[in-house]
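Record minuted for completeness.

…
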Amino acid sequence: MSSSEQSAVELKGSRGEIYSKIRRNKKKKVFWIKVKPGVRLIVYLLNTTKVRKIIMSRGIASTVNQNVLDGLKNVVELEIVKSKKGRKNLLTKEKEKILKRKRRKKPGELKRILKEMGISRRTYYYWKKNITGHSK
């Protein structure tokens, strides 16, 4: 994360919260928009603050009209960043190695593996199926 991203004012939450955050940060120059902005919100941001740079994710930028984005680019520096989507992956490289290992058919071995990995039996077979192509 760059220093401008760290000092950016995050605009997220309800519209009322966003407008009050803009009013409280009139002298800030960098804003990070984390919700779908309407034209009114963008105009209010430009008129109320000394904004020089606006940061938003690709997903948020795709919801904004292209004419509005082009207009913004003429007025301020617009940075569109790639953001991570979805849940954090719980399947680490170590767990993947355990799943790929050939399991001996000893009594209680699967229980030991499940306890070691901290997952349920169902999760074990689901991950194993996705890695190896078959569950057994």
User: Anything to note?
Assistant: The mean pLDDT is 85. Helices lie at 3-6, 15-24, 39-48, 58-61, 66-75, 93-100, 109-117, 121-132. The chain is about 50% helix and 10% strand.
